[in-house]
Description:
Its EC number is 2.4.1.227. The chain is of the alpha/beta class.
Amino acid sequence: MFAITGGGTGGHLAIAKALAQELQAQNLKAIYIGSTLGQDKAWFEGSELFTQCYFLESSGVVNKSGLNKLKALWKQFQATLEARKILKAHKVTHIISVGGFSAGGASMGAILARIPLFIHEQNAIKGKLNEILTPFAKAVFGSFSSNSKNFIHTSYPVRDEFFTTSRIRQECKNILFLGGSQGAKGINDFALKLTPLLLQKGINVAHQCGERDFERVKQEYENLGILNKVDLFAFDKNLVTRLQQADICIARSGASSLWEMAANGLIGIFVPYPFAAKDHQYFNAKSFTDEDLGFVIRENELDIQSVLDFIESLQGEILEQKSSQVMSKIKPNGAREILNHINALAPIAKD
């Protein structure tokens, strides 16, 4: 029996889902242990991927101080004891943590119960919890480089659709602005400045601006007289098609977005979320731009000319070459690759 723990936000939970789907495909049973806070319940409550789901009371400890920090630590301690009981009751033999504060209780519970702990670190910079847990883990999996002795490089678990719809880009005719499902005001404001110039150059623009910012952005495009020339939308669940249609994407640099774009052969202009823990989005993007596979610019330094220069540099053979190179950075079946490594380190008995 496996346990998967962690989440809080979509990036962590997407990894948990990919691993659960692969376990199910291999006829291996799993339980899920998450938190009452964050998005864990919305993703997995009642999910058929797990034999049972548990949501424990816990909260993040990082960025808290004084009494609030003590309360958070106490909740984590209680969650650890509760998780240990759950793990023993289900006779869990392997546990995979995908990070996030909701992984704390079950991961610590596994260490106390001497159950092999495996960690997936999605970002280029380790989260605080993963940093603490790494010495106790059997292995840490990740798609960015790491100096940890127990680190194993694997492909990022990305849905097959991003690979099957991939293509080598040959010319820049379509640009996609991704402001996220909730909207990213910095990217939206930059899109409003850059789009008129892109349209003048004959480049088509699609812009996901988020539900919260939709009316404002729509009105701004209307004021500019170009609303009918822009494919503006609040949010599209069919992100695969949107990425496939784009030749360049301007977006945040969360790990999932980066690797989904790479799987599709799409070069990115990355605007890291400025308040991400340990500035991890910047370092995620930097791992690509260090290989000249994209462009990273901080939100407070957004500059129209430098972005235009980068776009204009990606024409013909250069774009084709970079599109092919970025695609080669990731292979399909990342979740299967992780489970194969787990089986080699701690053989899995079929349920």
